[in-house]
TrEMBL record, chains A, B:
<keyword id="KW-0460">Magnesium</keyword>
<comment type="similarity">
    <text>Belongs to the SLC41A transporter family.</text>
</comment>
<dbReference type="InterPro" id="IPR038076">
    <property type="entry name" value="MgtE_N_sf"/>
</dbReference>
<feature type="transmembrane region" description="Helical">
    <location>
        <begin position="320"/>
        <end position="341"/>
    </location>
</feature>
<keyword id="KW-0813">Transport</keyword>
<dbReference type="GO" id="GO:0046872">
    <property type="term" value="F:metal ion binding"/>
</dbReference>
<dbReference type="Pfam" id="PF01769">
    <property type="entry name" value="MgtE"/>
</dbReference>
<keyword id="KW-0472">Membrane</keyword>
<dbReference type="InterPro" id="IPR006668">
    <property type="entry name" value="Mg_transptr_MgtE_intracell_dom"/>
</dbReference>
<protein>
    <recommendedName>
        <fullName>Magnesium transporter MgtE</fullName>
    </recommendedName>
</protein>
<dbReference type="InterPro" id="IPR006669">
    <property type="entry name" value="MgtE_transporter"/>
</dbReference>
<keyword id="KW-1003">Cell membrane</keyword>
<dbReference type="InterPro" id="IPR006667">
    <property type="entry name" value="SLC41_membr_dom"/>
</dbReference>
<keyword id="KW-0479">Metal-binding</keyword>
<comment type="function">
    <text>Acts as a magnesium transporter.</text>
</comment>
<feature type="transmembrane region" description="Helical">
    <location>
        <begin position="362"/>
        <end position="383"/>
    </location>
</feature>
<dbReference type="GO" id="GO:0015095">
    <property type="term" value="F:magnesium ion transmembrane transporter activity"/>
</dbReference>
Length: 454, 454
C-alpha cells in the first residue's frame, strides 16, 4: 500500500474538514501523512487556517510537524510568533533539543530567554546549552538525545535499557560506552549487540577505537568524515573527551546540501539560491548588492578602456573583439576557479601543494590559450582578411587565457590559506579581474603595434 | 582512544613493512585502519607497491578496500587490469553486489563477461542483474543484500534470522515484509522489533504503508525523497510491486554530492570539477571543447558589433561601456539561471507555475535594472559630464537587465519542460546570449539617438 502524500485533492479535502471544524475526520486524514508531508501541508496553509490547526493539534503533534520544516528556516520566526507563547514553548519541549535550538537561534536574545523561562527546566537547560555553541560547528548541529551505557553492562541489561529509551533517542543503532567521568571509551552498533549472547559483557564486545569529533569542529569537516566513512552517527566530545552529543546522518545530509548550495550561489553571485522569494521586490533586494558592486567594478573596466581612447579612435574595429577577449578570460578563469574551490571543499587542496596546482593550471592555460589563439587568428584572417588584426587578437587570447587561468586558481587557493572562504571569490569577481587583465593586454599590444594595424 | 588514520609517518611505516615483506607487522598496522583509510593508503601507492599488496591481502580483504574507493571511479579499470583476473573476480564476489556492479560498469562488455564467467554463479547472477538497470536509476544504485521476512514470523524468529544475516546484509535496521509472490507488504524498523515481546506476530506490528521507489525512478528523485523523509533506507520494487532491492543512505549521500558537483561544474562550464587532473594536458583537453564553442559564440558577438562599426567610428567612446553592459547582462542572467536551476533540482519548479516565475523574474529584472540604470547614468554624468551618454548607458542597463533576467529564468524552465537537463544551459551560454542581446540594445539605441551623442 502506498502512503498518502499531500496531493492537491487530498489537501483540499483536509482544508475543508479543517474549516468545518470536523476535528475527528481532519485528524484521521492528517495523521495518514508522513510528518514531512504534514509539514508541507502546514507550510502551504494561509494564516487563518494555521490558527485553526493550532487549536486541533497538541503541542507534541505540532512538534513533529515543526521538526520537518528544516528547509524553510526563514519562516520559524513568524510561525512561532503567531502561536500562543505557552503553546510554542510546550511544542519546543517536545522537539529534539537540536531542532528546538535551531528554531530558537532565529530569534533575538530577549525572545529566546522569554521562551526558555516558561519551558520545563530540563528541556530549557539542554536547549540553551546547544545555543551556546558557535554556528557551523559540530556542537551547533549535534543532538543530546543519545543512548550511553557503561562497559560493565551485559547485552541483556543494554537491551532492557534500549527498550526504555528507544522512543526518545534520535538513534539507537549506535551505543556509546562511557566511564564514570563520562569519557567516551567505546562504541558498539545494535548489529553487534544482537548477535551476542545475553550474558556477554559490553566491555568484551565494544570497539575501543572510537571515531569522534570535537564540539568545535567545523560542520563541513564533520559532514565529509561521515560521508567518507559511511557512518550513520558520530559521537561529539568536549575538550576533556567527554561525550556531549551525537550527530546523525540526516543532519549531515542537510549540511552537505547547504554547503553545495552555498558554493553554487557564490559562483552565480546570488546570496542564497535556495531561499526562493515569491516576491520580486525582496528578490531584487537580495541581488542588488552584488550587482551594484559589479557595476562599479565594470566602471573601472570602462575607465581602463578610456585610457586607450586614442587607439580606439584610430582603429574602431578593435572594439569588436572586446567582448570576445573579456568573455574568454572570464570563462577560463571561472573554470579554474571552480576546480580549485571544489578541491578545497572536498579537502584535497592541501597547502603544501599550492604551487604544484598553480604550475599545473599555468600549463593548462598555456595549452588552451595556444589552441584558442590559433583558432581565433585563423578565423579573423579568413573573415576580415586582416593578418595583423588576427595576430593581435590571437596573441591576446593566448596571453589572456594563460593569465586568467592562473588567476582563477591562485585567488581561491590564497584565500584558503588566509582562512577566508574561497567560494567568496565568486565567478563574477574573478571575471571582473580577468576582464581588466585582458583589456590591458589587448589594448596594450594594440597600442604598441598600432603601425601594423593601420 | 582515537583510531589511526593514514598520517604521513604511519603511512611510511606501512610502506617500509610492505617492501621488507614483513607480512605480519604490515597486516597488523594495516588493519588498524578503517577501510576508508585503507583505501586512501592503497590509492596513494605506486604500482610496484600495489602489486606487493595483492600478494599479502586476501580477495575478501581487498574487497573491503575496493568498496571504499567510490570517489575515484575512473581508477577502477586500471586497478582491475593490474590484478590477476582470478583474484579480481574473487574480490568482486566478496563485494556488495551493487559496488561490484559499479566497478564492472566501467569496463567494456567483453571484459565484463570474462570476469562474470570465472565468478561464482550466484554472485555473477546478482551482479549481472544490477548491470542491466539503466544508469542513474534507482535500480542502478540499489543493493540486493537486504533482509526480507514474512508477516507470519514472530519477533523471536525474526531476531534469530537477523543474527544469521547481520554479517552479510547492508543494513538490518529496516526489515521488509513480503508475501509469497515477493510483493512488498510491510516494513518495520529494528527499533520497533526490539520493543515488542518475543511472541508478537510481525503482521501485528509492521507498518502496512510502505514508502518505496520503482527500479526505473531517477536516482536524484530517490535521493530527494530520502533526504526529505529522513529515511536510512528505501525499498525498491519492480513494476509488479515485488521487492527487488534496497537503497541505503550512504549511496544517497554520494548521489546528492555528485549531482551538486554536476550542477556546479556546468555553471562553470567544466566537464567535471571533481575529477581532478594532475596533468595539465588532460585538464586542457577537458576544458577546450567548452572554450572553443564559447569562442565561436564570441565571434558572433564580434560580428554583431561589426554591424555598428559606423556608429563606433563616429563615437569611439561607446566602446568603453561594452564590457560593463555585457558583463552586467551576464551577471544578472547567471543569477536568475542559478535560482531557476536550483528550484528545478529541489523539485520546486513545477510546470504549472512557470509563467508566475517568469513574471516574478521580470519584476526583479525591472527593479534591479532601474536602480543600476540610475546609478550608472549619474556616475557617467559626474565622471564624463556627458548627459546623453549617461542616459544612453543607463537606459541600456535598464532594458538589458530586464531582458537578461527573464532569459536567465526562461531558458532553464523551458529546457526542463522539454526534459533536457536545465543545468546544461550553463552560465557561459546564458552569458553569451545575454551579451548579444545587450549589444543589440546598446548599439541600436546609440545609432537611433546618434544626433544627441555627437
Amino acid at each position: 500500500m502506498q502512503p498518502k502524500t499531500d496531493a492537491p485533492e487530498y489537501r483540499q479535502l483536509m482544508i475543508d474538514k479543517l474549516r468545518e471544524n470536523n476535528v475527528e475526520e481532519f485528524r484521521s486524514l492528517f495523521f495518514e501523512l508522513h510528518p514531512y508531508d504534514q509539514a508541507k501541508f502546514f507550510l502551504k496553509l494561509d494564516q487563518p487556517d494555521r490558527m485553526l490547526l493550532y487549536q486541533i493539534l497538541s503541542p507534541e503533534e505540532m512538534a513533529n510537524v515543526f521538526e520537518n520544516i528544516r528547509d524553510d528556516k526563514n519562516r520559524y520566526k513568524s510561525l512561532l510568533e503567531e502561536m500562543h507563547p505557552a503553546f510554542a514553548a510546550k511544542m519546543m519541549e517536545y522537539m529534539y533539543a537540536d531542532d528546538a535550538a535551531d528554531v530558537l537561534s532565529e530569534l533575538t536574545k530577549e525572545k529566546i530567554s522569554s521562551y526558555l523561562t516558561i519551558m520545563d527546566a530540563q528541556a530549557a537547560k539542554s536547549i540553551s546549552e546547544l545555543l551556546d555553541y558557535e554556528q557551523f560547528t559540530a556542537g551547533s548541529i549535534m543532538t543530546t538525545e543519545f543512548v550511553a551505557i557503561n562497559a560493565n553492562y551485559t547485552v541483556r541489561s543494554t537491551m532492557d535499557l534500549l527498550r526504555k529509551e528507544a522512543p526518545d533517542a534520535e538513534t539507537i543503532y549506535y551505543l556509546y560506552v562511557i566511564d564514570e567521568e563520562k569519557h567516551l571509551v567505546g562504541v558498539l552498533s545494535l548489529r553487534d549487540l544482537i548477535v551476542h549472547e545475553d550474558d556477554t559483557l559490553i566491555a568484551d564486545i565494544m570497539k575501543k577505537k572510537v571515531y569522534s569529533v570535537s564540539v568545535a569542529d567545523d560542520q563541513e569537516e564533520v559532514a565529509r568524515k561521515m560521508k567518507d566513512y559511511n557512518f550513520l552517527a558520530l559521537p561529539v566530545v568536549d575538550f576533556q573527551h567527554r561525550l556531549v552529543g551525537i550527530i546523525t546522518v540526516d543532519d549531515i545530509i542537510d549540511v552537505l546540501d547547504e554547503e553545495a548550495s552555498d558554493d553554487y550561489s557564490k559562483l552565480a553571485a546570488v546570496s542564497d539560491v535556495d531561499s526562493y522569494d515569491p516576491n520580486a521586490v525582496s528578490a531584487a533586494k537580495k541581488r542588488l548588492p552584488w550587482l551594484i558592486i559589479l557595476l562599479f567594478l565594470g566602471m573601472f573596466t570602462a575607465g581602463l578602456i578610456g585610457q586607450f581612447e586614442e587607439t580606439l579612435n584610430k582603429v574602431a574595429t578593435l572594439a569588436l573583439f572586446i567582448p570576445l577577449i573579456a568573455g574568454m578570460a572570464g570563462n577560463t578563469g571561472t573554470q579554474a576557479l571552480a576546480v580549485a574551490v571544489r578541491r578545497i571543499a572536498t579537502g584535497e587542496g592541501t597547502s603544501e601543494r599550492v604551487w604544484k596546482i598553480i604550475l599545473k593550471e599555468a600549463g593548462t592555460g598555456l595549452i588552451t590559450g595556444t589552441v584558442c589563439g590559433i583558432v581565433v587568428a585563423l578565423t579573423i584572417f579568413i573573415w576580415k582578411q586582416k593578418f595583423f588584426l588576427g595576430l593581435l587578437v590571437g596573441l591576446s587570447i593566448l596571453s589572456t587565457l594563460t593569465v586568467a587561468t592562473i588567476a582563477g586558481a591562485f585567488v581561491p587557493l590564497v584565500m584558503h590559506r588566509l582562512r577566508i572562504d574561497p567560494a567568496v571569490a565568486s565567478g563574477p569577481f574573478i571575471t571582473t579581474i580577468n576582464d581588466m587583465i585582458s583589456i590591458l593586454i589587448y589594448f596594450g599590444m594594440a597600442t604598441l603595434f598600432m603601425n601594423y594595424l593601420l
